[in-house]
Amino acid sequence: MAFNITEMNFAQIAEEGFEFELKNPLTGDGLEAYITVRGKLSPKMKKYNKSVFNKLQAKEIQNKKRGKDDHLTLEEAEQMQREAALVRIISWKGIEKDGKELGNTEGEFKEILTNPDNSWIVEQIIEESDNSANFS
Questions:
Q1: Deepest in the core among 14, 70, 79, 116, taking most CB within 10 A?
Q2: Are 59 and 51 in contact (CB under 8 A)?
Q3: How many angstroms separate the CA atoms of 50 and 56, rounded?
């Protein structure tokens, strides 16, 4: 049977999301906390990536005009990674802070992801979102 391209809308599938279980970064054990992420082929991710590219390109042009050879700092790269994780999140469940389960608001997502101690969560979000096999 031939592949029918009109039957597979990968962008829509990626936008609907994929739920994964957070894993302890040291042991690999599941933590009974779940995050639903959109895939890299989703329209929202494509728009975000285009925006980041345009900002970086504009910064590079500005630096050349000023005769600067500025490069991205580690802090800027880490901030970009946190922002990239934030835009991927659709929802989460089973994540608590101070004994209270967190809700599904962008503010709460941002609060958790901007904490440097939670960089392992950022990494897992990006890894699961970038894995196209999760969206089949």
A1: 14
A2: no
A3: 10
